[in-house]
Structure formats: C-alpha cells, structure tokens
Amino acid sequence: MISPFASNAKIQGFAGFLLFAGFVLAVTATAADPATPGWTPPTVSEVGKGVWRIRFGQPERFTPNAVRESQPNWDGIARLPAPGTLPFQPEDIRCRVTPARTVVYVPCDEPDDQIYGFGLDPAAYEQKGLRKYLSVCAGVMDKTGASHGPVPFWLSTRGYGIYVDTARVPWVHVARLAAKTAAATATAAEELKTQAADLYIARPVAGKTAVQVEIPGDSQGVDVYVFAGPTPREVVQRYNLFSGGGCLPPLWGLGMKYRAFTGANQANITNLARALRDRQIPCDMLGLEPGWQSRSYSCSLTWAKDRFPQPESMVNELNRQGFKVNLWEHAYINPDSPLYAPLQPLSGDFLVWGGLVVDFADPRAFRLFADYHGQTLIDHGIAGFKADECDNQPLTDCTPFNFPYSSVFPSGIDGEQMIQLYGYYYQRSILSAFRARNHRTWGDVRATAALAAPLPFNLYSDAYQFDQYLRQLVNASFAGLLWSPEVRDAGNLDELLNRFALSSFAAQMCLNIWFMPHPVWEQYDHDKNLAHELLAEPEQQRIAARLREIVTLRYRLLPYLYASFHRYQAEGLPPVRSLLLDFPTDAELRKVDHEFLFGDNLLVAPYLGSEHRRQVYLPKGCNWIDFTTGTLHPGGKTLTVEGQTGDAPLFVRENTLLPWAEPVSHIASETVFDLTIKVYGDHPEPFTLVEDDGETYDYERGAQNRLTLTWANGQGAVVKNGSYPGSRYRLSRWEKVALHP
Ligand code: GAL
C-alpha cells in the first residue's frame, strides 16, 4: 500500500471516529519510497536563494507561472536574510499523477504550527484543519476558499511557504486527514458521544498529516515551489519577489477614489467633482460606472453620447481639476462594440450577457483588447479601469455571468483554466497598454490569481460584511493581493464612519457610490438616497466634515505609504499586512485577524460595525504609542480602547520616524509634500522616503531618490541618494512627540 505520508517512525495517534470504548487500532507506517510505483518521481532544483522547484511529470501549458509576464526578481530574493531550515526536505513532497487528478502531498505534521494563506479568504484566518475549494468566485462569504482571489499558496508559522502552480480548481485538505497507514495507535478509549456537537467537534489529527492538494483533470504533472523563511515574513517576500515584486501605484493612486452613480451623466459628474472640491474632501480619482457606455451589460466600450456628449472635454476638464478618471467595464464584448468583429474568431464558444468572452490566452486577442483601450481611451486621458464581473457566480446565484468549465477557446485553454485566469489576463492586457505608454495605472478588479503581486489592481466585492472586509485585508497580505474594502452605504452613521476609516487604511481608499444618485454625505441610506430623501444640510455638513478628516489623515500619511509601496516593489514586503509577519514569535497573534500594520510602523485596529470601543492586542517585542494621546504601552498587552466612530485606533511602534505631510486636495505631477518628521522614542530607526516622478516607470531605470532620515542627539538628518532630478518632499520640521506613561 502506498502511503502519501512519508514517515520512518512508528506513529502514535488517535482513531478519530471511534464511537465505542475499548476499540484500539495500531498501525505502523514505513517510509514511502519515491521510487515506489504509483509515485511520480520529483525533479528538485533550487531555482533561487531559498526557493526550490519540484517538478512532477510535465506541467500544463496554462498555469499562472506559464502565462505571467513579470519575471522573478532573483536579485531581490538573494538580498533577503539567509533562508532558514525547512522542517522537511523538498524531496519529501510527493505527487501522484493519475488520469483523473494530480495529487500533491506536502508534509504538515508539526502539531504546534499554523497555516495561513490561500488567497482572499473572507471567513477563515487560521487554515489548519479546513478543506478548501480554490475556485474564483464572486461574493462568497464562507471558509471554503472560493473567493475573488483564490491562490494555491500557503505559509506555515514554521517558516516556509508552498505554491502549487495550477490554473485548475483544486481541493485542498489542510492537515485534516489521517491516512490509514498514518492512523496511529488509539491508546485512550473514547466515551460514547451522545450529542452531535461532541461527535463532530473539530479535533486535531494525530500522526503524520499533510496538506493535500487535489488538482482535477488529466494533467500530466505539476510544479510545486517551496519558499524558505526564516520567518513567514521572508516567505511572503520570497513569494512576492518570485512573482516579480509588488506593484508600484502612481502616487495619485494612493489618494481617494470616488465612484459615481451608474446613471450619472456628464453634468452630474462635473457637479460631483465640484462638490468634492467645495466640501474640501481630498480626492484624486473619479470612477464612472456602467452608464458611461452606450451598451452595458455586455459592454460596447464606447461612450454613451446621450449621457456624455463631450467625453473628451469632460475628461480634460476633470484632469485639469486634479481628478484622474477610471472607467468601469467588463470583458464581455457587446455586438455594438468596435471590438466585436475582430474578436469574433478569437473568443470562447459561449456568450456572457450576450457578449463575447475574450480569448486572452491568444496573443492576438490580448493585443487587440489592449490596443483598443490604449488608442480609444488611455490616449484620451483615461487613467485606470475597473475590470468587473471577471469572476464566477456563486452556486446560489442564478445571474449568468460565467461561462462553463467545458468552454472551448481557439488558443486551446479550457474553460476551467480560463475562468481561473480571466481576471489575471484581463489585468495584464490593460496594464500592457499603460506600460507601452510609460504610464503607471491603478485599477480595480474582481478576480485574480496567483503571482499577481506586480499587477496594480485592487480586489473588491459586492459582499459587504464588515468583519470579513477587515479579514480580507489581512489575508490579502499573505498572497500578494491588494484588497479595497470599499464603502457603499451604511445602516447608520456610526457604521458609515467606521467604514470610511477602514477603507482609509487600505492599499486603496474607495467610496463606491455606484447605486446612489446623490453623494454619500447627502444620504448614506441606500433607499432614501434613491428616493431623493436627503439629510438636512447641517447633517450633510457634519458627515462631509468627518469624511474630510478621515481622508485628510490618509493624505498626511501618503509619503509614508508610498515608501511602503516602494518596499513592496523592491523587497516584496506588503504595505498593509498581518501583524504575524512582523512579530512571528508572538503566538498571541495567530488569531488576530482584526488588526494590521499600515506601513512598517503603524498598527491599526479599526472599530467594527457601529462600535466605538474595542480590545486591541499590542504585539510583544516593543512598546507602542497611542497616536492620539501619546501614551506609551508595553507590547504583549491587550487594551480596551474607546473613542469616536470613524477614528480607527492607531498605535505607533516606539522608535519610529513618521513623515507627516501637510494635506493637499489631490496629487499633481508637480506636488511637493511639506513634511514634518514626527519622532517617537529616543532611539528611532532610520526611515527611507522614496522620491520619483510618481507617474512613470522611469524609476526602474534609476530615476528615483532615497532620502534616509535619521535622528540622534536631538537632531534630525537627511541623506539623499539617487539620480531623480526633481524634488517631491520639503522637510520643514522635526517634532519630538511627547510620550506619557
Ligand atoms: C457590480 C460591481 C459594482 C458595480 C456594479 C455596476 O458588478 O461589483 O461595484 O460596479 O457592478 O453595475
């Protein structure tokens, strides 16, 4: 008998479902020999420092690794701390390729470790013991692993990560199954369980277990990658650098995005822009929803001339006022679109909303789509796109926005692979049009895949549960994804303000007011807004003022956030991330999915729902300073904090230099930030700001400066290196922040 679980020891364990006392099972397992018939022999190569590829058989033609554009940043990987020791050898990973499925077994038998990852999971944080189904899917709110960004990459607190390079929909059993040969001697007799809850309670699996990835179909093999730590943080960095490094948004992309009502016309958009400036709410991007097009759904990708008679002059005027324009769309091409005829032969054999499904895997279709966007929209001032509906409908939803797994595409990719990769290809196609023009972009997308870190798109969802929005933000940081917890409406004002606050600390801040005709500060209740029942002016003013404060705080931190994005790009370190990555030895953090790091030094613990009180755990290893009061707290402590809704509790790591900018209404090419450097603690670590044109890819060719800030003996100093000729920061002042015990 072939055991998937390599072991040369006699394994002690537990017979999970023994209902009757006195039943004893004893099994001795021996090492599974890779040469044993039935196992597919591995070919192991160390492809980079601390990165191994284990090839089983012949991998498929369409996988994220095979279709990606960005190449691994091997130099960046080599600069990371030396890899730690793996708890197993890459050769211990097994695989069985059969005509029905390819199954990968990764040892995972450390009782005290925990597993994280699998993409944008909305409901589960700790993954051990779960069964996942990593399908691209819209609006799922459970622990199955189906999501807008399912990623077969996971990491262990033991300091390693695994990526299985597949574009199929795998089932993953996360150390939850006991194979017959690994089931061990049940030494203790179990009592008869008389209640279902006791019977089915989650219980640890004893003995040797594995993370078992079942890839359906008759693929001839698969590549598995192992990323070493030493800690989970370097694992994530290695994975992101292997993906090509994190994306670098344009500087304006870090400002606020306001998406307007889907039925808005040119005059409405112009008025909205004016209202934002009149209310002095900083904003950099306006998003136009389906109504900008002559046909949607499916999409014509041409302007609706009745609603937008002069789109070009509108876009120019908005640009002049400091707004970048982002257009909603999806990649199902309406018969009225100029793209329809050329894409007819380069699309799948099913329609979605009557539109063609683009065969992005064919380079001709990929180019046609990109060039169309370039020539008709980007060249006319459009700065970004929202790539909607590229996911799959949930089983419980009958909206037909998917195509079947059995779809046929001229390129040879099959329907399952295309569904898994549609959003990924879609982003790449659009991005290529911006790259060709040396413009950075910043977009939205509703589905993505593995190895997506270099793509400057933020995931979003129609699901709206507050705690899940927060958890997705934290989980995204394990998988090279960016999550935008957008604000649409709210049941009450407190919830609205807390939603603003959460979104203001995400990689992207977005108000997606697509289903309300009036600005959100005029009425945040969806039905009333639709019915034009607006709040009284003083209340509108109060909400606009709170929104202004929340957005302004984000804008004050933009130089700091931008520096974090440069680290993401060069070092693979996510700008907004789980605390676990920076404090790997603090076991208390293993369950903390409701706080996160914003940049390297700010801990954010948003109020949930409409609360204004919560518990905050401060990680061990340093002191933390309450941003509002200056109170110093030792790490390793849980505090109860209380404040006002909309003010997310914020703690600064002691010994931080925090760049603090004078607020601006938007970020223009020539914006120079006026900075105060706030000094928290007596021995702050240096901080590096990065300066570049904020808009192009010239930084890749060296056009960037690094400004290293240091503080010693009561004096601040700046050392500037680099060859970017411009100047983005003016350092006006250093402020030693008074701390209180
Ligand atoms: C949904 C999308 C929303 C909005 C809407 C417009 O699919 O998630 O954010 O864009 O389409 O029809």
Provide the CATH top-level class of the domain at 14-181 and 203-243.
Mainly Beta
Using only C-alpha atoms, the radius of gyration works out to: 26 Å
Quaternary structure state of the chains depicted? single chain
CATH superfamily of the domain at 14-181 and 203-243: glycosyl hydrolase (family 31)
Biggest sheet strand line-up: 22-21-20-16-15-14-23
Gap from first CA to last CA: 64 Å
Work out the helicity level: 10-25%
Cofactors, ions, other ligands: beta-D-galactopyranose
Mind explaining what this structure looks like?
20% of the residues lie in helices and 25% in strands. A hairpin with a 5-residue loop joins strand 28 (623-626) and strand 29 (632-634). It starts with 11 loop residues before the first strand and ends in a 5-residue tail after the last strand. Helix 11 (493-504) packs parallel to helix 13 (537-556). The protein is α+β, with helices and mostly antiparallel strands and 741 residues long. The longest helix is centred in the middle third of the chain and has 22 residues, at 415-436. Mean pLDDT is 93; it is low at 1-34. Among the domains are: 14-181 and 203-243, glycosyl hydrolase (family 31) (Immunoglobulin-like); 578-651, Sandwich (Immunoglobulin-like), CATH 2.60.40; 657-736, Sandwich (Immunoglobulin-like). The strands form nine sheets. The chain has a seven-stranded parallel beta sheet with strand order 22-21-20-16-15-14-23. Strands 2-3-13-9-8-6 form a six-stranded antiparallel beta sheet. The protein binds beta-D-galactopyranose (GAL).
